[in-house]
Write a structure and sequence with these properties.
disordered N terminus; 15 helices; alpha/beta; globular; seven-stranded mixed β-sheet; 2 domains; Aspartate Aminotransferase, domain 2
Length: about 500
């Protein structure tokens, strides 16, 4: 039952009709349609077009170059007058949809991009219609985000009182983790006096195989990229723990203040997993913040077969990861999880008057999400994630993750059986790096990658490992199957042979 004062109910019942909110036929400046039925019909056509796109996606090229005539259409001046939504939709179908990067396609293997799902698409539509701002206040959308937080804590073995937040992606999640770690190392004064006032020179540590966003966020956090120590890796592209310990000791001897270790759980270059348990031990001995970049790999915890390889993840002080990669949630849906919620809150909470809190009314529900990150205006990213987890369930998502790893092993086997091809890195999870054997291999394989992409058959990317250019296949999409792997092999051999012949 609602807890409303009796006087308020009487006033509401007795209020004149003019005091109530009523539909108006004389509001010319609204952005709502004059004809809701016409818009409804157009909306159904748009929805059906996207269902058709996903259902028939195998009939399309993975990617295709953008013609100059198409690019020119997006250099027009600002529209001044209204136009028909059907015309805008037609433009979308003809000049936008065909020239996207193609990560919904099963042949897309270029980068670690999730494929999205129809369920996630529908949830995104619902979220857009609701148009909730999840900066805070007492509203169920915030509770949905908190529900996902509780699920994440359960998945990663974090305490129930840990804190977390939806963000754009792992880059922003890493920045938040760095700022909380900086606050923990320097104290509350860092928020008012800055880093220089502490007199300490902070240093952070990650591997040479780590994602470039870590160095970028070290810069954004005001530490300067020289503060980041790049630790060498072993033959499996995992951080060398002895080298880590030696570097920390050398920094302390020179007067630096080590404060942050970033491990990688599934590198985007090779899929390698750092020795998380050993790094957690090192961080504890040294008194450093232990962060895990689990951008895509952390969600392998959903797979019982793969989860044991992430032992030590549960000991992290913070984990950054993306639901929009292996979780298949539509972009964007990154997440930061922080073990020490008090430290997290103290890093970002603001006493601004316009953020006044109450125990009742719309300003209730404190603390708010804006107390745990830099954004006050925040979209309802949690809804498409909540829908994905509710509809598919953790077990099904875990099987999808395991299947992509099985496909990577299948690709590894195909490469081993094909004399013209050579594996360039151990296959840890779902990323396979290989090349076509030939003289001038770097140039030829770079050309093969471009030929593959422009053919529309498959879309891997290129990377360089120990000076060797590799064709890099990241198998993330839940739609990918063995036929797509076979198509990649055939096309690689065809293009490689053609390059050698010329």
């Amino acid at each position: 039952m609602y807890n409303c004062p009796t006087q308020y109910l009487i006033l509401l019942i007795c209020a004149p009709h003019s005091a109530m909110s009523t539909p108006s036929d004389t509001q010319p400046d609204t952005l709502d349609p004059e004809d809701w039925n016409a818009l409804r019909a157009q909306g159904h056509r748009m929805l059906d077009d996207m269902f058709d796109y996903l259902a028939q996606i195998r009939s399309r090229p993975v990617w295709q170059p953008i013609p100059d005539t198409v690019s020119a259409q997006f250099r027009q001046p600002l529209p001044q007058q209204p136009s028909d939504i059907a015309a805008a939709h037609q433009t979308f179908m003809q000049t936008i949809l065909p020239y996207a990067i193609g990560n919904a396609h099963p042949g897309f293997m270029g980068w670690v991009h999730g494929g999205g799902t129809p369920v996630g698409m529908l949830a995104e539509m619902l979220a857009a219609g609701l148009n909730a701002n999840l900066g805070g206040r007492d509203q169920i959308p915030v509770e949905v985000e908190r529900q996902v937080l509780r699920w994440v804590c359960e998945l990663f073995g974090f305490p129930e009182n840990a804190s977390g937040l939806f963000v754009t992606g792992t880059s922003m999640a890493t920045l938040i983790a760095l700022l909380v770690a900086r606050h923990a190392a320097l104290g509350a004064e860092v928020r008012t006096q800055g880093i220089a006032a502490s007199g300490k020179r902070l240093t952070a540590y990650t591997s040479t195989n780590a994602h470039g966003s870590i160095a970028k966020m070290i810069d954004v956090a005001g530490l300067g990229t020289d503060a980041l120590r790049m630790i060498p890796v072993n033959a499996h592209y995992q951080m060398d723990i002895d080298a880590l310990e030696q570097t920390i000791a050398a920094d302390r001897a020179q007067g630096y203040t080590p404060f942050f270790i970033a491990a990688t759980a599934g590198s985007v270059n090779t899929g390698a997993i750092d020795p998380l348990a050993a790094m957690a031990d090192s961080a504890r001995r040294q008194g450093l913040w232990f962060h895990v970049d689990g951008a895509y790999g952390a969600l392998a915890m959903l797979s019982p077969e793969i989860a044991p390889r992430l032992a030590g993840l549960e000991r992290a002080d913070s984990i950054a990861f993306d639901f929009h990669k292996w979780g298949q949630v539509p972009y964007d849906a990154g997440f930061i999880l922080i073990r020490d919620s008090r430290q997290h809150f103290d890093t970002f909470a603001s006493p601004a008057a316009y953020l006044r809190r109450e125990t009742q009314g719309m300003a209730g529900g404190s603390p708010w999400p804006c107390d745990f990150g830099p954004d006050l205006s925040r979209g309802f990213r949690a809804l498409k994630t909540w829908f994905t987890l509710q509809v598919y369930g953790a077990e099904k998502l875990g099987k999808v993750i395991a299947h992509t790893c099985e496909l990577a092993r299948y690709l590894e086997q195909r490469i081993a059986q094909t004399p013209e091809l050579e594996l360039l890195a151990p296959v840890s999870l779902n990323i396979v790096c290989f090349r076509y054997r030939c003289s001038d291999a770097n140039r030829v394989n770079a050309e093969i990658v471009i030929a593959l992409q422009e053919s529309g058959i498959a879309a891997p990317s290129a990377t360089t490992l120990d000076g060797k250019l590799a064709i890099r296949a990241a198998i993330v999409n839940h739609r990918t199957n063995k036929g797509d792997i076979d198509a990649l092999i055939r096309a690689t051999l065809d293009f490689g042979g053609a390059k050698i012949a010329t």
